[in-house]
Automatic annotation (TrEMBL):
CDD domains named in the record: TA_like
Protein name: Threonine aldolase
Lineage per the UniProt record: Bacteria, Bacillati, Bacillota, Clostridia, Eubacteriales
Residue numbers carrying N6-(pyridoxal phosphate)lysine: K201
InterPro entries, per database record: ArAA_b-elim_lyase/Thr_aldolase, Low_specificity_L-TA-like, PyrdxlP-dep_Trfase, PyrdxlP-dep_Trfase_major, PyrdxlP-dep_Trfase_small
């Protein structure tokens, strides 16, 4: 039985072109800035994202934490959206590493209201921490891959800038946002002082992310990367796959978006689950479990036994993510397996379990 893995676009495997590029990569010691393939990736990434310079980092979390370390000083406060990856999924890194505290604000489908940001920026007062940074996330993971409205990104950036506060953009999936909106990634990233994006999600590279910003920012970020143990040596074998990701894998993200919509439309027809089809903008589908005999955890477990992997992201919510290793045929097969599993809902009277 073929396993259809919809847990995340992080499960993608490198393409044959990536494997060839990795095998043939020219390498050197990147800590000495002597790896030509890494330098080529960084120059290409900076050009594509519209910033002066870029830095190859091992992961999106490392890129975000390097950005926070570079922008802030100990004791600062960082304004984040309350459901953001930086706040939920990065192990309290800003506190543990940068000595900063988070100021989470509720968003609307991941987007912050500029007025809320303005109100949250601390005035000068001996009792208060300094607001050192504002962070946004585009696309927004826990909002189901939602694309941030660009006018709100620009307004938040202007609000922060007027108070002397930089803006960092967690753009892990910014190319999904670019493809969905038809706007260049550089345009989406333009309001931000720094931006991180992943090569290892929908773009299919095996390892790595990019942090980009001004030349001065990246020079200091390089020091922070070294502090975190992220100074790599012959890293060109990894960077080579990143070059292929940026040059060959961006436009095909449209296929993932089409498959996500097909999946959402099919799931919306099934009893026991509910999907906001109109809210599916990119490659994520959020599924609410409405049949009281299931929880998200028990349903995801039953689906895994049927060869469909997905993640529970709440007591009654599943997240399904499409990517290059899931075809249209896989989507149709996943829907058939979903329907079969939902027909066999557990009997609480027999199991003695209450699914609430």
């Amino acid at each position: 039985m073929r396993v259809i893995d919809l847990r995340s676009d992080t499960v993608t495997t490198p393409t044959p072109a990536m494997r060839r590029a990795m095998y043939e990569a020219e390498v050197g010691d990147d800590v000495y800035r002597e790896d030509p393939t890494v330098r080529r990736l960084e120059e290409l990434a900076a050009e594509i994202i519209g910033k002066e310079a870029a830095l190859f980092v091992t992961s999106g979390t490392q890129g975000n934490q390097v950005a926070i370390l570079t922008h802030t000083r100990r004791g600062d406060e960082v304004i984040v959206e309350a459901e953001s990856h930086i706040f939920i999924y990065e192990v309290g890194g800003m506190a543990a590493l940068a000595g900063c505290q988070a100021r989470p604000l509720p968003g609307r489908r991941g987007a912050l209201d500029p007025a809320d940001v303005a109100a949250a920026i601390r005035p000068e007062n001996v009792h208060f921490p300094r607001t050192g940074l504002v962070c946004l996330e585009n696309t927004h993971n826990r909002a189901g891959g939602a694309v941030l409205p660009q006018h709100l990104v620009e307004a938040v950036a202007e609000t922060a800038r007027s108070r002397g506060v930089p803006l960092h953009l967690d753009g892990a999936r910014i190319f999904n946002a670019a493809v969905a909106t038809g706007r260049p990634a550089a345009e989406l990233a333009a309001p931000a002082d720094s931006v991180m994006f992943c090569l290892s999600k929908g773009l299919g590279a095996p390892v790595g992310s990019i942090l980009a910003g001004s030349e001065g920012f990246i020079a200091e970020a390089r020091r922070m990367r070294k502090l975190l143990g992220g100074g790599l040596r012959q890293a060109g074998v990894l960077a080579a796959a990143g070059i292929v990701a940026l040059t060959e894998m961006v436009d095909r993200l449209a296929e993932d978006h089409e498959n996500a919509r097909r999946l959402a439309e099919g799931l919306a027809q099934l009893p026991g689950v509910a999907v906001d089809v109109a809210g599916v903008e990119t490659n994520m589908v959020m599924v609410d479990v409405t049949d009281s005999r299931w929880t998200a955890a028990t349903l995801s477990g039953a689906l895994a036994e049927a060869g469909v992997r997905c993640n529970a992201v709440g007591p009654r919510r599943l997240r399904l993510v499409t990517h290059k290793d899931v075809s249209r045929e896989d989507i149709d097969e996943a829907l058939r397996r979903f329907e079969s599993v939902l027909r066999e809902a557990p009997d609480p009277a027999r199991t003695g379990t209450v699914y609430g």
